[in-house]
Amino acid sequence: MISVEQIQSLIGGDAVDPSDAKIGSIGQVYLDDQSGQPAWVTVKTGLFGTSETFVPLNDAEADGDALKVPYTKDKVKDAPRIDADQHLGVDQQQKLYEYYGLAYGHDTAKTGQEQGEFGNVGIPRGRESQDDDGAGERRRDLAGEPGVKGRDTSGPTTDQAMTRSEEQLNVGTEKVETGRARLRKYIVTENVTTTVPVSHEEVRVVREPITEQNRGDAIAGGDLTEEEHEVTLHAERPVVEKETVPVERVRLDTETVAGEQEVTEEVRKEQIETDADATARQGRDDR
Length: 287
What we know:
Blueprint: H1 4-10, E1 14-16, E2 22-32, E3 38-45, E4 51-56, E5 61-63, E6 66-68, H2 73-77, H3 90-99, E7 121-125, H4 215-218, H5 276-286
């Protein structure tokens, strides 16, 4: 038999069939009213776990973080629909036991009753009133005690008032990655045209008349001779050299831009109403 401690650790885990295929997640645990031991669990099946059905713990066993039951997923999904937020009564248990093929007087099918009697199974584990130390034990029923007015019709009277709760939005921010920016350096080629001044030598003939100053040079040779004279010409031409020089530094930086984003979400809250006002008005009208 699975103990309370074992089943508590499995809440929220998976219920699996004999072949370890997942049936659904474990939602609530129902304890036997008399023995206080786990008798049933609810398993959430269907799309997004929206359907919750009862499964008996008679032949179930803990398998690591999972609860293994001797039923298939289809068997569990087709179980009789019973509100998982209420006390499991005799008729409801009888219907479930018949569906799962369990005999009323079977030892492993008892729910804390003697001699095969069929009794009630308590409210879900975790929804019962707990001591301040969180031990999970039920508080004493205070109905009828001095100073306690009325009684709780949905379970033991543990308090004189209801606590109304509501959901509140706690909106914050988180930093998420939205993209990346990269610096990439690559080489492109372009044509550069520039003008360079160049010079060159050209030959020209200079004719000098015979004068007293150059007469000696002019008659130094023979009377009639054949001669050749040449001049070497020079010219400048462009010479191109390339060198790599740094021209600038480029880096990436980020800046934070502040803005506003509207958030819309549904929140639930509890409302407490009383029929005392209607009763009082009716009494006044009667007068």
